[in-house]
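User: Predict the complex.
Assistant: Input components as received:
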Amino acid sequence: MSKRDYYDVLGVAKGASADEIKKGYRKKAKELHPDRNSDNPKAEEQFKEANEAHEILKDPEKKAAYDRYGHAAFEGGMGGGGGRPGGGQGDFSSAFSDVFDDLFGDFMGGGQRGGGGRNRAARGSDLRFNMRVSLEEAFNGLQKTINVPTAVNCTSCEGTGGDGGAEPTNCPTCSGMGKVRAQQGFFTVERTCPTCSGMGQIIKNPCKSCSGQGRVEKERALSVNIPAGVETGTRIRLSGEGEAGMRGGPSGDLYIFIEVSKHELFEREGVNLFCNVPVSMASAALGGDIEVPTIDGGRSRVKIPAGSQSGRQMRLRSKGMPALRGGGTGDMFIELAVETPVNLTSRQKELLKEFEELSEDNNPESKSFFSSVKSFWDGMKG
Ligand SMILES: [Zn+2]
Ligand SMILES: [Zn+2]
């Protein structure tokens, strides 16, 4: 079942102010209150829905997370949370939950999820690492060590958060429900329990190393394999390499977002590479061999047929990029750009003038162009 948009639930516009959200909620709460809707079985559901929407939208952090990721921000893991400082080689941002699983599926495979629902021991946040690689690196694939600033399970309490590894106990305020009911005016509102912050459990003697969090901040060096064929936008998921969960909950995942730098010589389109090669006017006219660079660092000889025009394309089979999931290699296309000579000496000018006088039938393209122009102008007259 798909969840309704929280703003719609409260009957306010997207990006409504805190005041508008409050007013919208009050209106809905009055309208839908079960005491007034004994004959409408749907009202109770809608009333709960409005409460939930209000819980999220009244909290600036949760609201921000919802605005960015929608409902996915609160599924399975811990929503919200802020950015993290960069690790020198890229930027991290924390806490974007399971949303990418649904959108992009598994790439590296493996790693199972704790299912939906609210876990007592909350799943750790996912981490994002932006990695820039060169086209050569994308061609070859690479292994890189990255430093991941993240939270790991606390060793003193083995992740329980309790001193000496003591397990948490049920919260006395809410009896483990994580929610309390409070009287507001003439109706009852369900609230997150203030004692346990909705966890349903409390820790009597918090672990001193982690202040009861069950995890500590630490930088980890992680060696990652970037397969050959990655391109800008490729996401690589490293299952379980994100932040450790709260109080022994499962770890989040680490996502590596690839960006391939622009190359000086090659332009990439999928698995194919394109390279513009300038050739002199005389070489294009006479034909000959040229040497072109290839992405593997080598060179290939290419025969230029006599009379090649600017824009002529030639294909070098299997000299392109490897396909990411196997399935062959692309081609490389070279496109000739015939260069008009500049800075002519008087001797060169003389030669070209002489050449031009002898060249009446050597420029078929311009000949046919000018004859079309002539018939166009003649047509205008008539
Ligand atoms: Zn601890
Ligand atoms: Zn509680």
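Residues 171, 173-174, 178, 193, 195-196, 200 surround zinc ion (ligand 2) (CB under 6 Å).
Let me know if you want any component modeled separately.
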